[in-house]
Fold this sequence. Notes:
By secondary structure, the protein is mainly α. It contains four helices and no strands.
Amino acid sequence: MAWDEWERLKADAAARGSTGMQLNHVPMDPGGSGTGDLKSDRKAWAKAGADTKGLQDDIGQALGKLDDGQSGLGDTSGVQSAAAQQELYASWKKYVGDVKGRCGELGGLLERSGHDLAMSDADVKAELDKISAKYHDTEAVGGQAKGR
Length: 148
């Protein structure tokens, strides 16, 4: 008797069709064409974070070469091209230093996000916004007339 009832319940459920899973804070159809095959891999997050943070080493080497190339310039007063070159150097040194810092912070965020997969999308977005605000692109310096 119980098996007959079980078979009837399964047949009724199959006839109604699958309703799928719905999270309470997410609308049923958020406008995307997702397939419902959400997968996340801690190792992939950790690798992405480590690789992004690893860019800091290469950028640090590039900064060292930039400094080496700048050495020996000497006094730039009275020579417009040398003063312009010094200005360009300072701009690029700051920009590349910021890129290095951004890689470190973004890599750390990726690692933390994937470590326990507990951060919500809103939390990750907020952290990304903080990084973007901190490391906004520098204003263009080279090639500007600056009233001359």
